[in-house]
Amino acid sequence: MTLLNTLKLASVKRPISQSPLIYRRNKLCTKLWEQIQIARAAEEGTEYAPTHYKTVLNKVIGEKHEVKVPKRLKKWWWNGPDGQLVLKIRSIMMKM
User: Fold this and answer.
1) What pLDDT does residue 1 have?
2) Alpha helices, DSSP H only, in the chain?
3) Domain of 64, in residue numbers
4) Is 2 a domain residue?
5) The dihedral of CA 22, 26, 31, 32: what is its sign?
6) Distance between CA 13 and CA 15 in Å, rounded?
């Protein structure tokens, strides 16, 4: 019981959502990680094909169900005219 007596309790409000800046930063990190996986797969001669679930409506029955589909990814890089690798990261300015 001595351990419980030494604890101090505090009232803290948990944040409901992330700030837009943190959300965009995490999203960019995820997309960069995917680009690294595409590059590694291309170097090894394989294909990186992650999947995600899509909800599809069966028109005959009228019932919804989830289907696993491959995620469409585009490469952000290409070989330039001088043979160097060119990487383009598009950013969208946000008003805060």
Assistant:
1) 61
2) 2-6, 20-44
3) 19-87
4) no
5) positive
6) 6
Per DSSP, the residues of 42-87 read HHHT-----EEEEEEEETTTTEEEEEEEEPP---SEEE-TTS-EEE
84 φ, ψ (degrees, to nearest 5): -85, 155
Per-residue pLDDT of 18-73, as tens digits, reads: 888 888 899 999 999 999 999 899 889 999 989 999 999 988 888 999 999 999 88
The conformation of residue 55, written as its DSSP 8-state character, comes to: E
- Split into its structural domains, the chain has a count of 1
Q: Which residue matches tokens 């009232």?
A: 11
**Separation of alpha carbons 49 and 73, rounded Å:** 8
Mean pLDDT of 75-94: 79
Q: How many whole angstroms separate alpha carbon 47 and alpha carbon 73?
A: 11
Any domain includes 78? yes
